[in-house]
Amino acid sequence: MKSLCPILNPVLIPLLVLASLPVVVAPQAASASGLVSTEEALEAERADADRERIHEVLSREDVQEELLARGVEPEAVEARVAALSEEEARQLANQLDELPAGASVGTVVGVLFLVFVILLVTDILGLTDVYPFTR
């Protein structure tokens, strides 16, 4: 066996290297074959969610009435939303999320009254010193 090793080593080593080449090349071929990365899949899902959010807002009855009052047909709006790029849809969905969600003057007055009552009760209990008329 010791006499065969010096003869077989120069032959076996190049054969093993050549045999392992398809294993090294295979992952690169798989990535070029159209596999979708996780980032690409999440980006596509996010774009679908953005468009769904826009459609959700545009399908509300009050929005439809306002569009018709301004002379805009719902079909035209749908066509324009469908023509938006992914970046434009993302920006529009972000703007929709940042708009105030129906805050009215009554709500603001109610919150201010609640703060006044809480400060008044804590002042009567002696926890704060906000109103001089409670002593």
Question: Which descriptors apply to this entry?
Answer:
mainly alpha; 6 helices; single chain; 135 residues; 3 domains; 0% strand
Architecture overview:
It is a single chain. With 135 residues, the chain is mainly alpha-helical. It folds into three domains: 35 residues; 63 residues; 30 residues.
Secondary-structure element order, as H and E?
Answer: HHHHHH
Number of helices: 6
Overall form:
elongated
Helix percent reads: over 70%
Could you describe the largest sheet, including whether it forms a barrel? none
How many strands? 0
Q: What is the assembly state of the chains in this entry?
A: single chain
Distance from N terminus to C terminus (CA atoms, Å) equals 107 Å
Taken as a percent bin, the fraction of beta residues is: under 5%
Question: Secondary-structure map with pairings?
Answer:
Layout: H1 5-32, H2 38-58, H3 61-69, H4 74-82, H5 86-98, H6 105-124
Short description:
The protein is an all-alpha fold and 135 residues long. Helices cover 74% and strands 0% of the residues.
